[in-house]
Amino acid sequence: MTATTTAHYSILEVCWPGAAADNAGILLVDPESGRARVRLRRDWEEIIDDDDDREVFALLQQDLNRWIEETSPAEVLQTLEDRLSNVLRISEREAVAVDDFDRTLTRLYNRHIQSNVIPFRTHLPLYSLRAAAGGYGEDRAVNHEDWVEVPADMALSEDQFVAHVDGDSMEPLIPAGSLCIFRKPRAGSRQGRILLVQHFGTVEGGGETTVKRWRSEKVQSEDGWSHERIIMEPLNQPKHQPWLLSPEQQETLRVIGEFVSVL
Questions:
Q1: Residue 173 near residue 136, CB atoms below 8 Å
Q2: Model confidence over 205-263: pLDDT tens digits?
Q3: Alpha helix (H) ranges present in the chain?
Q4: Short-list 55, 46, 57, 51, CA closest to 88
Q5: Distance (Å, rounded) from C-alpha 42 to C-alpha 40?
Q6: pTM of the predicted structure, to 2 decimals
Q7: N or C: which end of the chain has fewer CB within 10 A?
Q8: What is the Cα–Cα distance from 238 to 236, expressed in whole angstroms?
Q9: Cis omega (within 30 of 0) on the bond before 238?
Q10: 210 vs 164: CA distance, rounded Å
C-alpha cells in the first residue's frame, strides 16, 4: 500500500480588467516535508496581447521556482496570499491527499487548468488505443482522441504521442492506468527497450497492443542474421512471466512506439 500525506494546494488566477478570472496554475505545498511545486500554463501568447505582459508571465514559472528554492514554501505561500490582489491572484488553500507529489500536481493541474493547445510545444496527441501492460489489450481501431498537455521540462517532438497503459506488469516503472508518452520507432537495436507493440487484429486500422521490454536472441545463417525468438519481458516479476514468441508469432507483431515517460 502506498503511504499518503495531506498537503494543500492553491489555484493561481489571472484577472484582466473587465474580464472574468482565468485559472493560470497550481501551487502544491506539503507542510510536513517542506516541499512545494508550482505548475503554470504556457499559452500566454494565446491569451495576452501586450508584449511586455506576455514576457513577464512567460518568466513567472521560472521566478516562482527560484523563489521556492531560496526560501521556505510556507513563506512563499504566505507572501503570495498577503500580496497578490490585482492581475495575479491566489485562491484559498484546499487540502488534498498525496501519494505521489508530482502525479498529484499533474492531476490537480489537469482538473483545474484549461489551456490552449499548441501542438507539439505544450501538448501531444492522445490516441484511443489502450496498451495492456499485463497482456494484449482490446482489439480496436486507433484514432486521434484528444490533446494532452505535458510538463514544461519535457522536450517534445512531432514523432511523440500519448496512450493509456492498463495492467500492472510494468510496475513500478509504469503504474496501472497510466498515461504514457511514446515516440515512433527509430533506427537501431531494440534490445532492452520498452516498446509499445501491436498484434495485427481484425479491426481495420487497429489491433491488440501491449507494453513490454524487448529481448531478442539471434542466429546467423547463409542469409544473414535472423531472430530465433523474441522475449516480451514484464518488469513486475515473478507476478508476470515473460512471453516467448515463435517465428510465426513474430510475423504478426509491429512495433509502434518506444516508451519515453509516464505523465
A1: no
A2: 667 888 999 988 776 666 666 667 788 899 999 999 998 887 777 778 888 899 999 98
A3: 44-47, 51-58, 60-70, 73-83, 101-112, 247-250
A4: 57
A5: 6
A6: 0.80
A7: N
A8: 6
A9: yes
A10: 11
